[in-house]
Amino acid sequence: MTYAETAHDVRDPELPGRLLTTERDALIPLLRSRPDEDFALATLACPGWTVRDVLAHCSAALTRVVERRFEEGVFSPEANDRDIAERADWTNARVVDELERGMTEAGAAIARAGGALDAVALGEWVHAGDVRDVLGVPGAYGGEGLGSALTLLGLVTRQKNHRPLHADLDDLDDPLRLGDVSGELTPARYIGDAPTLVRLYSGRPVPDGAGYELAGAEPGELNIFGG
Q1: I need a labelling partner for 223 at 20 to 30 A (CA). Which of 98, 150, 151, 217 fits?
Q2: Can you give the pLDDT at residue 9?
């Protein structure tokens, strides 16, 4: 798959679901192989949350999507904290089971939403990277889902009319075009690897020594999730 001309692409409604199931097949066996103490590790990307908290948030969010429960304030920090608290008495295994079901079933609901929930799938994939990062798994924000995640990142940044950016990625032959396509703004330019680009767009810490160049924008301006 190439990513050279993504400025005028057509949304593939099945893409978010494919990303979720690809990540499910990688993440769930990893989680089931880890001891309970790993679930209590603090995360770097989500201050104040443990690995278990991140997983509980993810499983709750996907369950809401599947069940179409979108009350006022859903996905706000307060709502996220309530979802985590509601699962405080669950075993780690039960949280992982709910996450597996959500990653399996949410794709159909996201496809029907016409793009409104695409960012949920992308956020879930990023959170899986958060967990892998804490657990010391190589390629935290990469793996089999990276290509789909980059395509979805392009779609989400255009849905949000995010600032335009041209990314020349070390791991792809063709440039990736992100953000607004009106031509009214001069695109920023990124040169570096794809996982670091994902970290920047999701507001995740970039490791010391990561070699990348960003011109025409500050790193914080790229964050599509806010905060």
Answers
A1: 98
A2: 64
- The whole-angstrom separation of Cα 164 and Cα 162 is 6
Q: Check residue 226 and give its pLDDT.
A: 74
**Amino acid occupying residue 14:** E
Q: Residue 217's pLDDT band (boundaries 50, 70, 90)?
A: very high
**Number of residues in the chain:** 227
CA pair distance 189, 154, nearest whole angstrom: 15
CA dihedral 117, 160, 208, 132 (to 10 degrees): 10
Q: At what angle do helices 118-135 and 15-32 cross, to 10 degrees?
A: 20
Q: What is the pLDDT of residues 118-153, one digit of tens each?
A: 999 999 999 999 999 999 999 899 999 999 999 999
pLDDT at 4: 39
**Cβ atoms of residues 123 and 198 within 8 Å:** no
More confident: 89 or 71: 89
Q: How far apart are CA 181 and CA 164, in angstroms?
A: 7
Please tell me the distance from the alpha carbon of residue 5 to that of residue 2, in angstroms, as a whole number: 8
Q: How far apart are CA 180 and CA 182, in angstroms?
A: 6
